[in-house]
Amino acid sequence: MTDAQAGKKTTIALPVALFDTLEQLSTVHDENRLPPPIAQAPVAIQKDYLISRRFLLEYKGSVDTFNSYRRELERLLQWCLLIRKASFSQLKREDILVFMDFCQHPPSHWIGLNNTAPRFIDKSGVRLANPNWRPFVVRVPKSQQQEAKKTRFTLSSNAIKALFRVLSSFFRYLFEEDYINSNPVAKIRQKSRYIKKTIDVRLNRTLSLTQWRYVIAAAEALAAQNPQVHERTLFIMVALYAMYLRISELVETPRWVPQMNHFYTDSASNWWFKTVGKGNKEREIAVSDEMLKALKRYRLSLGLTALPSPQENTPLIPRSRGYGGISSTRQIRRIVQNCFDFAATELARDGYPEESEFLRAATVHWMRHTGISHDVLTRQREHVRDDAGHSSSAITDLYIDIEKQDRHKSGKNKKIRPA
Questions:
Q1: pLDDT tens per residue, range 282-301
Q2: For labeling, which of 293, 329, 332, 362 is most exposed (least CB within 10 Å)?
Q3: Phi, psi of 113, rounded to the nearest 5 degrees
């Protein structure tokens, strides 16, 4: 094996983004169009790219699935192109194991810190790869970024399981399409080498009550300062928290276009919100009085009536310019992150430095975690389960920390030297 195949970090080139967004890939009429790095690669690698894109577009009905598969296949194709210098048909079982090791500890210049850079950007009407994009990302508070650069990157147990799932599905697809003669992933018998049977320590992705109070206060302050821009910010923050929405449930996608009339009332005058979430599953969410109040405020700021009619098809989150609704999850992330940063600054100013740093590391999905975690303290778990779209109560139970808190409280004052 050559130095490049072994993954020596001093010889590895900087990767360039290969797969654009689902929207962009779906609208490309030329099925043989290749990004520059692939156009200059051997023909076998070019074919690898084209069949990878075809596989990804099989998941155009689910943006979340598409994004997770794109992330793993992009890493694999980059590794084949820049390091292994081999096509999919040449990969053996040993190569997949080397790739897994590589993903565990990629070179530092392949890793971004809190990197929200899109894969591609528009420049003078041309779609170009973003030089700031990286295949791997470490999310840490700004105060810890210098230390993070010295720390070796590693995938969590769940991330490794996800990687194996994607590789297994993809190489099974290649085998069934007669693109490869054998499935190298299927030959790996001891996945436990990577997936250790340990107790997973769940990272706390829930904002404290103090942090949430500062976040909602920040959204209200922004709306007061610039209502034309930030009334939308306030509504987004409330909807993410109060209805446990995923970011993909707020944007327009090929499978779902969220509209105002997805808020509706039943025969008992109860308000509901209809959405399509993970796995293309439609669900109804109970709308609280506070959520309904937020909806009325938001609609009035848009010059609409206080509540939608059943026939109204106004986009739920309209674009700032042009027609239609927001179709970029990245834009929602920027809106939420701006609110988080505002709240974190206020927390630090008021003497909560730890709370501030924790909030700066938060992501949009933490809003869903926070809403669910706060609600399971006061609502029946089955009701929270259905509003959240969980497949079972066991998933909802993961948000219930009462027993764990009581257990810690009972052991908190244990003495090392008993009286």
A1: 899 999 999 999 999 999 99
A2: 293
A3: -100, 120
